[in-house]
Structure formats: C-alpha cells, structure tokens
Amino acid sequence: MRTSGGLSLIDLSAQFGATKCFNFLVLNNAKITVRTLENAFFGNSKEIILKCLEQFDLTQNCIEYAVRSHHNKTVKTLMTKYNFKYSWYSTLYSFNLKMFYPKLHSLENINSKDENGETALIAASRVGLVPIVRLLINRGANVSVPDSKFKTALSWACEENFIEVAKILIEAKSNLNSTDKYNWTPAHYAIIQNSHRILQMLVDKNVDLSIHDLNGKTPLMVSSYNSAIECTKILLTKQINLEENDRNNWTALIIASANNSVNIVRALVESGANIEHEDKWGNTPIMIAAGKNNTETVTFLASIGANVNHQNRNGKTALIFAADNNSIESAKVLVDFKADVEIEDMNRDTVLSIAKRNGFKEIQALVSD
C-alpha cells in the first residue's frame, strides 16, 4: 500500500520518525528500501536510521533531507564522519540559514558550484530570496555563471516568475541571451510562464528574440504555443521575423491556428503574418485549424481571404482535413466560404468518399446537398 504521495507505509513511518509504527511494519515483513533510509533523515529517528543502515549505504539525499528538515546536528555528523556535502538549494528551499551561512563563509570562490552543479546565486534565484540574491551580488557573485545544464540564475528566475529577482539580475548585467541545454533563453522561460512583466524588462534591454530552441522555436513561437496573448503583444512591438519557423516549418501563426488561439492569430495577421505559409507537408494555417475543428480560427482566416482550396503535397485541402477528422463545424464554415467539394487528393478521395467510408453522416449530408 502506498499513500497519495507515492510513499509506502514504512517510508511514511521513517519520514515522521514514528519508531513504533516502523518496528511494527518491519515485524510484519514490510520491505525497507533506499527510499526508506532517505526518508528517515526527515524524521531523524536514530533507531530507524540505524535499522535502515543495516541494509543500505548513505546517499546524497540523506544529507539533503536532513538539511531540509533542519536536523543540523545530523547534518554535521554526516559532514564530519562521512565527508558528505549539502547543496545550496536545500538550505534556501527550507530557509535553513544556519546551514547556508557557514557554507557561504567557508567559500574561497563565491562562484563555486555545489554537488548539484549550482552556485549559491543560482539556488537563491530558483527560490526567489531577494535579500540573499542582493547579498551574493554585493559579494561579487557572477550573475552569468550557468549551472550544470547551462542554465543561468536569470533563466531560473524567469522560469519561476520571480519578478524582483529577475529585475535585480538584469540590472546586474546578466547575460540576457544565455542558452541552456535546450537552447532556451530567459525570454523563452518568461513566456512559458506567461510572465509578461519579466518579458517586458527583457525586451526593453533589446534581448535577442530570434534565437531558436532545439525544436526550432523562437520566443514568439513559444508564445503562440502557450497562448500567451500579453507576451505576444509585447513581442510584436519589436521588429521580428514573423515567418521564422521550426523543424516542421511551422510559424507562430500555424502554431496559434493549431491551438485555436484566435486573439493571437488576429494579432499576428494584423502585424503582417503570412496566412498562406506552408509547413514541410504543404499545409497552411487554415488547413491545420480545420483538421483540429478550430472553428473560430477557420472562420477568421477564411473571412480575410485564406485560400480554402489550397492543396498540400498529398493533394488534401482544408475541407478534406475537416472530413478526415469529422470536424463538422469547420466543414460547414469552409462550405459557406465556397470550398470546392469535388477536389480529389492523391488517393483520388473526395470529401464525400471520405465521409462515406468513415460513416461521417453529417459531413456526407453537408457535401451532398
């Protein structure tokens, strides 16, 4: 049996230092695991810890959990007797400043990284502790040093939406265009959190908005994907290429059309986005929208002149896409805008033949009139 948090009863007993419960479970053949040992350092029951150590060796999580639970005597024992070291994040995440400051004062280099590959400044930025961030910067912390995954303190602040921390790091000349292992910049992270306030600060500092992540997505494309209208509006105040595309040749407009983000579709079109841009398969925004039955987007694109009869590389049109997916509402809109129901794809299928084969009676009736 496991709790809602995924812990077994014996793990839970260890976590809370419930010695009698733990012993009862052991007598009834409950299995002690490494996870049980690690959780024992939350509960800090010496009896439970020793029982677990009969079967397993100490792990890094043991000292991390002891720090997070403020069992500082146990932490010091693990350090002196077993030569373990703890991370910056554990001290700051749990506000265990009694463990943070001694570690800080022992540093020869304030930019040195811990067992997690993080500096003190990165950990403080992840947690959003403004006074600690200021302290570290005043002591000479390098604001652009990345962690083991090449992610900077600013990227962490953006991801966690810590506005004041981001402001401090920007003012301290952090690298605004740093990229991590996913090639995400601080702007990418701000947008995925829909943090338009942080994004505005970055844009005001002329951050590079043309950087593609490993999937080929720019900040504008991520904004479309995330349906972040406020962020999109900020990005569109800058002179950016609206036709930048990802590995599938999808633009921000195609992404917004796929998500039925009509407000973003409108904003992009008003800024000059190409409504006939083709992806790697020759699909246009209205075709993608029709296939997903995104009726509002289909209606808007058709109303401003999108080609409802464009054929992709397989000969399919927006209406055939709608038929393939039984997108009846989008099909009705396309028919209203004079979509050709007789066009055949490369398999010589028409909307009617697809509807008949799949038993889509509403679409069959629609195009049989």
UniProtKB/TrEMBL annotation:
It comes from the Eukaryota. InterPro entries: Ankyrin_rpt, Ankyrin_rpt-contain_sf, DUF3447. Residues 29-101 form the DUF3447 domain. ANK repeats lie at residues 116-148, 182-214, 215-247, 248-280, 281-313, 314-346. Keywords: ANK repeat, Repeat. Pfam families: Ank_2 (PF12796), Ank_4 (PF13637), DUF3447 (PF11929). This is Ankyrin repeat protein, putative. It comes from Trichomonas vaginalis (strain ATCC PRA-98 / G3).
